[in-house]
Structures are given as structure tokens and as C-alpha cells.
Amino acid sequence: MAKDLVLSLLAVSSLCLVASAKPTVGFAADGTQFQVETYEGEPRWKLMPFLWTDKVVNVTCPGARDLAVFTAHDMDTLRTQIAEKGSAWCGWQHFIGLDTESCIIRVSPFGTFHVAVQVPPSSRLSLSGPKCTFSVRQQLSPVLLATSLGGVLLFLYAEPLSRSQPFRLSTGTLGFVLLASLILFFMLARNLPSKRSVAVAFAAFGSTFTGLIRYFFGRWIPSWTQLMYSPYMMVYFGISGLIGLAVTYYYDSEENVKLQNILKYGLKLLGLALVGLSSTMPEASAAFACLLIIAQLAGALDVGRGTAGRRPAKNRPSEHAVTPPPSKQLASSPIQPALLVPFASPPSERVPPVPQPDVGWQADAHTPTVPIAKEDLELQDSPLVQQGLVLNLATNRTIQIGKSTYNKLVLEGYQVDRQKGIMTPPKGHRPSTTHGARR
């Protein structure tokens, strides 16, 4: 019955709001007070500058210990929100209990918006007493603009950032600091009223942690000012950052291609998420994200077409170039060291054999060598390296570049010659049979 009274009250409120701009106040059967107010926004076709405009509604109910605020674009949705108790987020201060009389919500500046506040009967409000007050603040948000710009930059420059060691170290340090902040928040939320279920999993560690907080600060729940200016908290976050820096530096590897790809695509997804959350219209944010993806794909296709167009001209035989052996022969047949030296073999070994008269070994010995441009030798990688392989001279077998065996041999002092496609062991090194498998 109380639910029916609430729905009927909201139906009457919707009619009154059309005729008057004053908020409608009423009580349900259980004494719960509802106050509804309607705000007229901008038309949806006026994107600029309202796309990055922050519209904040501050609801203040003097004497209220707990209140719930519901928002919707139409009255039917508002009734559904109230019936399902889908209240809006009122900010961190209201969540942790520092300010229970006010609720700060952000609404869209486009279209009509309804805001309803529900006050329980335990609060000191009556028909003749003080009512909840509504105040609206609308201004251009620098945070939304910075979020949008940061998302675009992260998406476009994800690849160079993933290869930058200072960026990776900074990201690891920041991640550990955020983890330390999350642990601190859960430990403090464990002592808040009606919030004990949040940190049940941290009960074993929480007793000792909160005991230390009580010892250092003199109270179970310190204020944010105490936390921000406390030297103990600075030491706590400083140690967390140093641990994150050390762990990231220890496990960081520029040769790990998989890790760089994970970081690159993770930054791209983060950039798209920031773009999607940086405006007050979800449709416009989704359109911007799709434009970024289309631009990235178009650029990749252009690069691929340009590379394919230049490839025949680059591989066309000339007086300074020699056709390399087919890639299938390199991958399937055993690789000999002589084949890895660029253009060191005579031309007769690099072309399919044809029937020739037996003229003896002197014919091969006096075969003239083909002149090769010096810049081609310095810049061109071995065909074996272009396939992602390199020959280990200690075992006379090929291994994959960037894999565990390759990284282990590099750490042991093996020298890599990309032009010849070989790995030379250090002096005095005994070859091991475990380094011969391709990994």
C-alpha cells in the first residue's frame, strides 16, 4: 500500500511540475518524505560547449541523517528508480559519513531532468519545518576536457609509450601507490557504520592495521587532513612507490615483445575508455571513440599499401643486389654458417642447380663476386633475422628472437650480429645442449 501511495504521489507531482517550477513536497504512508524538482536543459543538437559542461545539483536536507536521491529524464523512469531503490551516487563525503545532510550529484545538461530526494521519517523534517534545498551549478569542466585530450593522446601514442622505460617504471610505481591507497581505504571502511561488509576479506589483516592507525593517530577513523599531512602516511606511500619501482625494474625487459604488446593495447583501451567517459553525452563519446579506431585502421592500411607498393622496387635485381635464398629453404633445411653471411656464397649456390659440364673445382674458385653497395650491407638484416630467427654458432641451430632461450644467451654474453644472423658465444664458453632447441 505504501508503494502505491508513493507512485500516486509522484504522478501528482509530475502534473504540478508542469504548471509550476516550485518543488513538490509530500509524504508517503510510512512517513517518508519525497521532494521532486525538474530542471530544463539544453537541446541535444547544441553540442558545443555543453558537451564538456559540468552540471552539478547539490541537495541539502538540514537534520537528515541519511537520504537517497533519484534522478531520471522522465517521471516513469523516476518511479521505477524509486521502486527499485536505485539511488544516485552522492559523493565520497556522503559515503564515508562526513556529510550526511547533503548529496552532490552530476546530471546531464541536455534535455529535461527530474531529481527526487527521499528522506526517512527519522529525520527532523515536517510539513512546516525546513525542507530540502536544491542548488544548481553549471560551468565548463576542465577535468572533462583534460580527460578527453588525455584519452586521445594515450590512444595515438600508445606504441612509443609502451617502449619507453621511464614510462613503464612510472606506471608500475603509480600502480603500487594506488594499490596501497585501496588497501588503506578498505581498512578504514571496515570501521565505518553499516560498511563492515566491504572489508570482510581483510578481517585478519585489518585488526592489526587498524590497531596501528589507532596507535599513531589516536582515533580509529582519522580525518582526511590527518592522512594527507601525516608523516607516517607519507612514509607508507613512499615505501609503496619504491617497492613498485623496484619490482617493475626487476621484471621489465625491452626484449619481451609480448609484454610491450599487452602494455600498448592496454593503453589504447584506456584511452578509448577515457574518451568514452569524457563528455556528458554517451552517444557523442561513442562516436569519438569510433572515429579514433577508424583513423587508426586507415593509417595502418595506408602504411601496408605503401610497403606493398615499395616492395617490388626494393627487391628488383640490380647490379648492387643479389637475390637471397628462398625463405622456405631457410626454415625447413638445416642452416649452415656460410649461408648466414650476406652474399658470401658464390652465385651458383643461391640459384637452382642446372646441368653443367664438369669443369672441376677451379671454375667455382674463379667465379667473380658481385659488387655490393656498402650501405646495403650496413642497413639490411639477414633474411633469417627478418623471419625472427638467429643461428646459435655454439650448437649450429636456429632459435627465435625474443624467446626465453634467446634472452638467456644474451644475458650470458652472446653477441648478436643482425646483418649475418648469428649469435657468437663468448670466449671460453662451453656449448650446452639445452640451448639448441628452437623456442
UniProtKB/TrEMBL annotation:
<feature type="transmembrane region" description="Helical">
    <location>
        <begin position="169"/>
        <end position="192"/>
    </location>
</feature>
<keyword id="KW-0812">Transmembrane</keyword>
<dbReference type="InterPro" id="IPR019358">
    <property type="entry name" value="NEMP_fam"/>
</dbReference>
<feature type="region of interest" description="Disordered">
    <location>
        <begin position="306"/>
        <end position="332"/>
    </location>
</feature>
<keyword id="KW-0472">Membrane</keyword>
<keyword id="KW-0539">Nucleus</keyword>
<keyword id="KW-0732">Signal</keyword>
<protein>
    <submittedName>
        <fullName>Uncharacterized protein</fullName>
    </submittedName>
</protein>
<feature type="transmembrane region" description="Helical">
    <location>
        <begin position="140"/>
        <end position="157"/>
    </location>
</feature>
<feature type="transmembrane region" description="Helical">
    <location>
        <begin position="229"/>
        <end position="251"/>
    </location>
</feature>
<dbReference type="Pfam" id="PF10225">
    <property type="entry name" value="NEMP"/>
</dbReference>
<feature type="region of interest" description="Disordered">
    <location>
        <begin position="420"/>
        <end position="439"/>
    </location>
</feature>
<feature type="signal peptide">
    <location>
        <begin position="1"/>
        <end position="21"/>
    </location>
</feature>
<keyword id="KW-1133">Transmembrane helix</keyword>
<comment type="similarity">
    <text>Belongs to the NEMP family.</text>
</comment>
<feature type="compositionally biased region" description="Basic residues">
    <location>
        <begin position="427"/>
        <end position="439"/>
    </location>
</feature>
<feature type="transmembrane region" description="Helical">
    <location>
        <begin position="198"/>
        <end position="217"/>
    </location>
</feature>
<dbReference type="GO" id="GO:0005637">
    <property type="term" value="C:nuclear inner membrane"/>
</dbReference>
